[in-house]
Amino acid sequence: MDSERKQVAQSPASPASPTPPAAALAGLFAATRRQSLHLVQGLSDADATVQSMDDASPAKWHLAHTTWFLEEFVLGSYAPAYEVRDARFRYLFNSYYEAVGPRHPRPRRGMLTRPSLAEVIAYREHVDAAMARLLEGGLPPAAAQLVELGVHHEQQHQELLLTDLLHLLAQNPLKPAYRPAATAPALCAVQSPGWVASEGGIAGIGHPGGSFNFDCETPRHRALLQPHALSTHLVTNREWMAFMADGGYADARHWLSDGWRTVQAEQWAAPMYWEQRDDAWFQMSLAGEQPVAPEAPVCHISFFEADAYARWAGKRLPTEFEWEAAAARQPVAGNFADSQKYRPQVAAEDAQSPLRQLYGDVWEWTSSPYIAYPGFRTAEGAVGEYNGKFMNGQFVLRGGSCATPAGHARATYRNFFYPHQRWQFMGLRLAEDRA
Fold it and tell me: What domains appear along the chain, each with residue ranges and CATH number?
């Protein structure tokens, strides 16, 4: 056993959150590992190897990295008899953990033609067998917490695997489908948007404990909310087309300085994956190229675009605290990855109320920077690099998307991306100030 591996002390999940009973944790672990393999069924070795841009990773790498995470942080500390399958994988599949050691450069993950997809799956089986033995023997609380973190870490990578595959397939002129759509976006009558008002006041923000949460969701604290209102619906493709038709992408008045510079440099004129042919708009999806559904939520837009639209509409983006305070009053239900639609859907008339599509479909940009909550402390050990070191230059998104695993989202969950990024399923909901 490599002695360097015995350096993990504390999980970046909240230490106040109890782990599930042993049997439940083992079941959740096994189901999550099976789901990752389900997501790559039907992919060729080439599909799973190619890297379409620096921000994306190959499907094969996602499978291997989530396995390395368990090997490094769980087996490396709590299974002294564990035998590493291939010591070279520690270099190949480390993502950004400086404390672990050197790693293969992120922009060159697509150069890893070896190991093959089959070899990566064999690596997973080797680690899974060791994990099963460990789980059967009973775990100390610190180890169980790391296993639970490993499950949620893998769920995050399941979503990334899907969004990275979409970006990859979109580069292919054949516009191939990952899988056929389970259903087409439903058609329904256009619903007039409304507003849900709040008088503001002091709101409790952050996870209260009692179940799993990431450290960036804590400590729970109080935030002052001014009177405001949130739109009852997500901004739709039809509404976004009105922004485009009004010259929204060409009018500097709507844009932040960095956003305007990005629009010009990247020549953005529509959301990502949109293409116009014969006066009709099409969008690449995991089911291949599809007509843009006018009443479905707009997606694959950056923070810069979301902010510009809000300014054009005479509104603003919600703060993450306004969003969380509203979300805490609604059940976590929506179009998540388990629907296998993998595309934002049109809001049904009997959808969540009063705020439709609050969860699922698209991640909702907020105006809040991704920074630490008051009293936040980074966990000890290498896993302390999980969240804390990224609290700079990014913005928070809330709610989950059609690629988010069911059960992974919650009112306090904080996703975060750089303001120019848009390959994830990102959309927006408007907010406005009230006197």
Answer: 3-170 (1.20.120), 195-433 (3.90.1580.10)
